[in-house]
Every structure is written in C-alpha cells, then in structure tokens.
Design a protein that fits this description.
Blueprint lengths: L2 E7 L2 E7 L5 H8 L18 E4 L2 E4 L12 E3 L12 H8 L9 H14 L5 H8 L9 H17 L1
Parallel strand pairs: 1-5
Antiparallel strand pairs: 1-2, 3-4, 3-5
Helix pairs in contact: 2-5, 3-4
Length: about 160
C-alpha cells in the first residue's frame, strides 16, 4: 500500500508517494535525487546517512520516510547557499577534514546539530557530538579541528 506524504526538504515542499517500509535515505536518494547522504552500513552504525529532521540529527537509513510527513528535513545539500558553502563545509575543507568524502556528509550534519545546540564545544563535546560517525580515512583530529574552526567562525559572524 502506497502512502502520499507531504514533506519539506531543504526548504522546498514535496509530495512523495512512498511504500511504508522505505527508509528516509531511500526516499531522499531515489525519489528526490539527493545523493549526499550515503548508504554505508544500512543499520545506523556508521553515520554516513545522517540528516536533520526538525533540527534533530537522525540516521536516515533506519528512519522511515513516512515518519517525516509534515516535517522539515535538511540534508547536506540544503546547508550551502550556492555558490557559497556553509561555514562548516568550508572548515572541513580548510582543515583537511575530508579525504575520501564518504563519511563527510554525516560528519558535517552531526557537526551542524552539535553547533546548533552548543556553539562553543570543547574537544570532548565535539567527540560526543560526532559519536556514531565512522571515518576510516581522515582521522578524527582533523575533523575535530574543523568543527572547532567552524564554531569560531560562527562566533565571529
């Protein structure tokens, strides 16, 4: 049985016809063409699929698409105000927090959620805020430094 849901994704309203068992990740990638969130583990273990739903960080691989009916979803594509990147995206590039890029969308979304809650986190708060996001390439020190730089940039702006 298909369900029609209305949802706002990256400040744009959509109506999606979706099967009730489909994940939000599947709907974002396959129905809306938003491929920034990655399918890694498909079990909420790696964080590559993280998005914001009403400002709360969720693993979109295990969040049903029908659960976002009437809600506001922000993906990595929704952070930038083209042609400019979001300050968190800029910090990740400037500080070398990106290597292969697979974990990057989830890391950046987790960093955004953290900085929205805590605009001046210390290293431990950053580690806790990024917990559940696995990076196999870059190493966490550059990512932590990128989040600190993004926090400083937001405080100056």
């Amino acid at each position: 049985m298909l369900h029609d849901i209305e949802v706002t994704v990256n400040a744009q309203a959509y109506t999606m016809t979706i099967e009730p068992h489909r994940s939000l990740l599947w709907a974002l990638r396959n129905q809306l063409g938003l491929v920034g969130a990655k399918e890694g583990c498909d079990d909420s273990e790696c964080g590559a699929c993280m998005v914001l739903v009403d400002g709360q960080l969720v693993n979109s691989c295990s969040y049903l698409a029908v659960q976002v009916a009437g809600r506001d979803v922000t993906t990595i594509e929704g952070l930038a105000q083209l042609p400019d990147m979001h300050p968190i995206q800029q910090a990740f590039l400037a500080e070398g927090g990106v290597q292969c890029g697979f974990c990057t969308p989830g890391m950046i979304m987790a960093a955004k959620a953290l900085l929205d809650r805590n605009p001046d986190p210390d290293d431990e708060a950053i580690r806790r805020g990024l917990a559940g996001n696995l990076c196999r390439c870059t190493g966490y020190q550059k990512i932590i430094r990128a989040v600190k730089v993004a926090a400083q940039t937001r405080q100056k702006g």
